[in-house]
Design goal:
Helix content is about 30%, strand content about 30%. It is of the alpha/beta class. α3 (about 95-105) packs across α5 (about 190-205). It starts with a strand and ends in a 27-residue tail after the last helix.
């Protein structure tokens, strides 16, 4: 399997290549550098493996939630490649990639839970809850955007772990929820190395989509802009 994955859903910019079970990655924290960095990353990864784009079996990307601009960048690149190469695309939840990172970082036990939060700005967080099963994050509820005060955990017989930069807003979350989480890491951001690993399982299961169906998932459908005085 030769699978290329991209992530530009947060301040991180990354590309990863899975070739016969081995993953290589390029990653940089560059909030405004996604457009400049992404294509060179792709070219470097392919050159290292002596591969051409036509050698790829599939593509994957972190489809959101996350930065609206970042999601559009990865989606545009993936769609362009997929149309030209005529290969399937695997959209992967940005929240799930951080959940997978946390499973490994915390050595999460089977059946324990991961509560992932991203800062969605405008006083809100993107929120998703997952359960560790077979070393992978399985969604326990629909991903949503809400105020930190409104986050909640589904019932679980096990420990909870928190991950993602949205946990920097933990002081605004319900104290009972924060107390129920044994460990948190508020530095984790999505990375293509986790996108490509989750996507490989989806590809084996035959869940790829066409270039046209590879769309970003914003979660927040409406954005309210405050009008400046005099505008």
């Amino acid at each position: 399997m030769k699978l290329l994955a991209l992530d530009t859903s947060s301040e991180g910019c990354s590309a990863a290549l899975l070739v016969n079970g081995s993953v290589t990655e390029r990653f940089d924290l560059a909030p405004r550098g996604h457009t400049r960095l992404l294509m060179p990353m792709i070219r470097e990864l392919l050159a290292e493996q002596n591969l051409a784009p036509a050698d790829l079996d599939a593509l994957a990307f972190a489809c959101g939630p996350g930065s609206f601009t970042g999601l559009r960048i990865a989606t545009g690149v993936i769609q362009g490649l997929a149309w030209g190469l005529e290969i399937p695309v695997i959209p992967v939840s940005s929240l799930a990639t951080v959940a997978l990172n946390a499973i490994e970082r915390f050595d999460v036990a089977e059946g324990d839970g991961l509560a992932v939060a991203f800062d969605a700005r405008m006083g809100e967080v993107y929120w998703g809850c997952f359960q560790a099963r077979g070393g992978l994050p399985v969604p326990m509820m629909s991903e949503r955007v809400c105020s930190p005060e409104s986050v909640s955990l589904p019932p679980l017989d096990g420990c909870w772990y928190g991950a993602g930069q949205g946990w920097q807003l933990r002081e605004q979350m319900p104290q009972s929820l924060v107390s129920a989480v044994s460990k948190t890491d508020d530095t984790l951001v999505p990375r293509a190395s986790y996108v490509v690993r989750l996507a490989s399982h989806e590809l084996i299961a035959g869940r790829g989509v066409s270039a046209a169906e590879a769309q970003p998932v914003y979660v927040r459908d409406e954005v309210t802009w405050k009008k400046l005085p005099g505008r």
